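cron nightly-structures :: item 1 of 1
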Amino acid sequence: MKTLVENLLVYETVKRWIQKLTYKSKSMDFSQSQTQRAALFWLKNYCKYLGTNPDTLINQRTTDLENANQLVKRKHEELVEGYIIHLKNEDYSPNTIATATGLIRSFYKSSYVGLIEVKTPRSYNIRAFKVPTVKDIKKMCAIADLPIKTWMLCQKDCGLGNTDLLSLATNNLSSEYGTIKTQLKKGIVPVHVEVRRQKTGERTHSFFGPNSIEALHAYLDEGINGRIFRMSMRSIQQKVKAIGIKSKVATNAVPVTSYSLRKHFNTYMKLAGVNEAIVELMMGHSIGKVRSAYLVTGSGDVGTGIPVSKLAEIYMQAYETIDITKV
């Protein structure tokens, strides 16, 4: 295998690609964006699959395009098609495969050796899923190991998506109460989780309630610093699904998923009477800069709105609806 270093940004072809993606992006800080993380992840995965590195890949593509033999000339189209089949065999979702293929096509195009006749697979949602009840989540937590139990409780407590949760670290800073680690040490309930959306600059304000706080104390006591969850998105999805089936609250055909846990938060918080826009804000959904500015004001913001302390009060008033200790 040709050397593939961990930091892909040392390769000239990758630098060129990221520069072009940054130029087109609306992100305030593309280097910290989900798009860049996904781009580097899938390019690395593709290069590992081929046993090469980005610069060598583009050099080979350039040479192949000069060949009169169409089988040689279109070699990389066949390589990408083979990679797509590989991802399908690995049971990646259509959406994930579409994302990976689109990014790889973009990489070739950035070096002016774009692929021909390789279409990005259509992304679509075909899987049914079960929105778990509070009793269901309690049953799942009873048989889960500590890391995935903590994940499930945190996700059902805050409603944040996988990417936002995976990005959280113990030093993640709240504009009001300090880092997550500081809040846990001080016994602040709920723990305020603040995430700034890369694309829009909007702040997401959500919370970890008593269930997830208890799990985090046990989980972080194992000496985990930095990123809270050191698992891959794929691993989390597989484990949540498997636990749902093993605990007999779901089936393979209609599983509990990470998305299900977010849907649980959305459904039960709204049933508890929390304003729809506030629930969407907590989940990290875009509600528009104007509405979000009026909803929440953290320190450093301009204008007035609902203070984070008031948002926390609203959250805790509704928390009994999702508290697994109440069933």
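cron nightly-structures :: done
The beta strands are 173-174, 178-179, 191-196, 203-208, 296-297, 306-307.
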